[in-house]
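Annex B. Sample input.
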Amino acid sequence: MEEEQLIQAAQQGDLDAFNRLVTSYQGLVFNLAYRLLSDDSAAEDITQEAFISAYKNLRSYRGGSFKAWLLRIVTNGSYDELRRRQRRPQTPLEPETQDGDEVPDPAWLADPGESPQELAERVELNAAIQRCLDQLEAEFRAAVVLVDVQGMDYAEAAQVMRRPLGTVKSRLARARSRLQLCLQGFVELLPDRFRLSTEGTQ
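Annex B, continued. Sample output.
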């Protein structure tokens, strides 16, 4: 069944059709929430809340990019969580288990084809990227995650963020520049193509 048909069926109350949409998008939704929040548990909560909200408000979906519509719900929920944290700081830099232990490799990062060394290097690189993302303001972080991590085009990212295209491009350029500078501190972890010389920074 095509996505549009699934959406129409879900709008008419077909829970199985909606669950198929959830299956298609849950990884994408969790990844966005995790990158914005840097917290495995909070990302799981936001993911669940986003799908509940999407189901409740599905009748308000009027076409266009369903992915953008869904990711806007996730982004808004993540912004709300970040605002709550500013009022009540309590965010760990690394995801934790319910017992309070660090989770060095969230499940969505798993790749069964990797060697232990490759896995360790990727986990380190992921942690370095996340630390640098955490230093960005929320909307700058969202711009770079949507475009550079999720692979959305500028127009779709602007739709998710509800910002003019020029604003998204500007914030993305500034976010990339700041990330590049930050990641030079972890240059030994970066693949060769990402090892930018300081002469090439803008």
